[in-house]
Amino acid sequence: MRAAVTAATALTATGLLAVAPGATAAYADAAEPAGVSAAAPSGAVPEMYRSGTGPEVRVNQVGYLPDGPKNATVASDAGTGVPWQLRNAAGKTVASGLTTPRGMDAASAQSVHAIDFSAYTTPGKGYRLVVGGEASHPFAIGADVYDGLRQDALKFYYTQRSGIAIDDRLRPGYGRPAGHVSAGETGDRAVPCVNNGCDYTLNVAGGWYDAGDQGKYVVNGGISVYQLMNEFERSRTAPTGGAAKLGDGALAIPESHNGVPDILDEARWEQEFLLRMQVPAGKPLAGMAHHKVQDDSWTTLPTRPDQDTKKRVLYPPSTAATLNLAATAAQAARVFAPYDRAFAERNLAAAKAAWAAAKAHPSMYASGDSGSGGGGYGDTDVSDEFYWAAAELYLTTGEQQYADFLHASPQHTADIWSERGFGWDHVAALGRLDLATVPNNLPDRDAVRRSVVQGADRYLATLRANPYGTPYAPSDNRYDWGSNSMVLNNLVVIATAYDLTGDAKYRDGVLQGMDYVLGRNVLDRSYVTGYGTNYSHNQHSRWYAHSLDKRLPAPPKGALAGGANSGNEDDVAKAKLAGCAPQYCYVDDVMAFAGNELTINWNAPLAWVSAFISDQRDGGVREPAPAQVTNPVRR
């Protein structure tokens, strides 16, 4: 844990806000100092953070593509530009210029300047930006700077698996026995359903643990497995898709070298679980999907999954969960058909059964009450889930009934591009994105594609107006739980516009927007474990809990922290972050679950966007489009 500031902050002659010589910078995981008070005014910056959290020159700590945009942000209240230098690993100045004042940034409560050094294109490692004698963290310039992250963000899912022992030879330091494999009350092989009068148990083993607990939730698993399968589809249809980098053997998982791309093998582990959550034929509510399976009360931290002694409970079916199953099963029928025809057919049958069941029971809403032992995931508007499911069923089958439903849905022409972006409870965008990109014969497909570009334009405008280059800037100046996933999901929309149009402004927007996640933020922090110099490594988890038990590992390389959250719902955040300006509302503490949890639906867009950037090579001219893949499972 880093110490609090021990010397006063100095204002240099250039106007750069810097820590005085000999002082120790305050970090987000510092001990709570005097002056952090619950009475702090809303939007204020706690005293411990007013000098920043490290070098005042904030960069993407991983790096930049040679021909792509290269931007940085520096805290400065100077009224005019101040000099900057780009220095290579040997300390030689290779580029220089003046910063551009951007004024007061509401999200950080700081006056900031921007630096654009895009003109410098020479690959190398160990570069630093220097302003007023203060240097940034080192970073690289190269076409391969995202190649590792695209793999590690996906490798995260293997160690999240339920119902299988994690092989330490595949993930050194992360091996553990299988969790929840018994048919007893603490396992997932015969879990009784509760609160809806059912008289059966279900084998719901497998799948991914949702986050830092042992719950498994269909609506969160749905968007997560969708994004993995969507990343795979993009690799086959997008002009810059890199299918070879997602091939068999890429992820070092037990299924590697079985003739199926590893990303699909990993997605299948979750999809098999979602199929098991469907109410069996012959039972009341047949075809519906149970909302979640979780412990009946919270386990303590730390608790490895195989050491969980809590009773497992299966929650009632919900319309939202059922439509998530319909959507992902229809998508799985499409993507798995070339590799496992029987599995594809099984998914298509499940998707159609779920669709029929949801239409028969359109308002079975899950309660937002989490109960003790898991998240709630309540949702009382399922029009977006109906739209997404209809889109996936249409794309896979081509049947007119689904096209008719799409055209009758208000979601088809609604402005769905909210400033906060899409997520597990706002999924209309998933249908819109797939209708725009997956080959199909929808009569108004051109209008759908135009709407995606319009959404991208909105997020791109937000990014350009933001001095930290992020496409996420809520009008109420409050960052949400999981704000990093919202940044990334908005980048998915911008990236899709690039795939549709080839306009470089969208590609460049994605490259710049990723900077925020990897260090170009007020905390000078990369939110991805193992990437950058100052990165998150104490994410909230019951088994990646090294800070609580030295025998346990820290989160694996490539794990994304949720990010700044103005709500400060956990006790650590309440104590340390009272009155925080939005970007400051984060602490790297294993108990700070409101801002520092890791989840499957946050790593999914990280993997998607990292793959997109890796596919851009030098960040310059795009390659010719490959032939589009035809749909192999239409009936």
Automatic annotation (TrEMBL):
Reaction(s) catalysed (UniProt annotation): Endohydrolysis of (1->4)-beta-D-glucosidic linkages in cellulose, lichenin and cereal beta-D-glucans
Residues at the active site: 540, 588, 597
Signal sequence range: 1-25
InterPro entries linked: 6-hairpin_glycosidase_sf (IPR008928), 6hp_glycosidase-like_sf (IPR012341), Cellulase_Ig-like (IPR004197), Glyco_hydro_9 (IPR001701), Glyco_hydro_9_Asp/Glu_AS (IPR033126), Glyco_hydro_9_His_AS (IPR018221), Ig-like_fold (IPR013783), Ig_E-set (IPR014756)
Residue ranges that the Swiss-Prot or TrEMBL entry lists as coiled coil: none
Enzyme class per UniProt: hydrolase
An example molecular function term from Gene Ontology annotations: hydrolase activity
Entry superkingdom: Bacteria
Domain (Glycoside hydrolase family) ranges: 146-609
Keywords: Carbohydrate metabolism, Cellulose degradation, Glycosidase, Hydrolase, Polysaccharide degradation, Signal
Ranges for domain Cellulase Ig-like: 53-135
UniProt keyword Hydrolase, yes or no: yes
Family membership noted in the UniProt record: Belongs to the glycosyl hydrolase 9 (cellulase E) family.
Matches recorded under PANTHER family: ENDO-1,4-BETA-GLUCANASE (PTHR22298)
Record protein name field: Endoglucanase
